[in-house]
Amino acid sequence: MYKYIHRTKGEGKPMDWGMKNRLSRFIKPATGHTVMLAVDHGYFQGPTTRLENPRATITPLIKYADSLMLTRGVLRTSVDAENDVPIVLRVSGGTSMAGNPLSNEGLTTSMDEALRLNACAVALSIFVGSAHEKETLLSLSELVNEGEEIGMPVVAVTAVGKEMEEKRNARYLALASRIAAELGAHVVKTYFCDEFEKVVNGCPAPIVIAGGKKLETEMDAFNMTYEAVRAGAIGVDMGRNIWQHDHPVAMIRAVRAIVHEDYTPKEAKDLFDSDIKVPAKVLECPPKAPTKAKSR
Questions:
Q1: 292: how many CB neighbours lie within 10 A of its CB?
Q2: What is the mean pLDDT of residues 90-102?
């Protein structure tokens, strides 16, 4: 079991039961890893390609996701309450692709609302180095204070925005991730980059990587996932590289195999190639164990 479910990565004070329980709902105790499905893009991008109808996109993928990251609006309209998939609730926003800058976000959803929606965590973006750095970092701090009061984990997303695309490097991402952890974030979502181990080693909270824009091939996504986990990430929060693919179910199953079953990118590609020959509705979940024994 990933020790953070009981203590902070750096051996801080033990967590309360509710905090530990919520974390264990989306960070799976059997592996200490997670495959989060990001479907919150519409909060600033609007009807993103292949996410125009959220329900149609989400429904076939739910059973393969360890959690959904989404807004309250999409949760209420597009996910049936009978589903038991854990929810990481996006609670920041207020800007759009049509405006400038994206970094001028604020909190849009209360902690009471997160409790009403039975969320297992809340998530917001921080924009370190932007004109609105202070505001977003203070929002994170406020959210952590509220989360500690009620046992709600906070996921900090190290966003860069369209005006900061050049900052996806180890030096910047290590800075942003460390600041998020210093302010109390329980999980940090950041981008994969060269020398990613420097980002992980400098962050005392567990890290998940963002999938980012859709990559050219599925092997690009598999390689990124594999290298990130090997460097110490506990998993992914992936969206477009799954649901913008022509075979989204095969993609998420292959990513799960890397994150939870130690598949190599080649083994994941073999699983993917096998899956796309089978109707999605008859695929098993989780994927079958690898043919060779693996050690973690």
A1: 6
A2: 93
- Beta-ladder partners of 142: none
Of the candidates 189, 213, 214, 281, the residue annotated as catalytic is 189
Distances in Å between the alpha carbon of 293 and those of 145, 197, 228, 255, 290?
44, 26, 21, 18, 7
215-225 mean pLDDT:
98
172 is a domain residue: yes
Q: What is the mean pLDDT of residues 143-160?
A: 96
Domain count, the chain: 1
Give catalytic status of residue 134 as yes or no: no
Is it the case that residue 125 has pLDDT exceeding 50? yes
Does 266 fall in a domain?
no
Whole-number pLDDT of residue 185? 98
CB 123 within 8 A of CB 88: yes
- Say if residue 290's pLDDT is above 60: no
For residue 120, the enclosing domain spans 3-191+198-214+234-246
Closest CA to 203 of 221, 226, 222, 184: 184
Q: Do the domain assignments include residue 268?
A: no
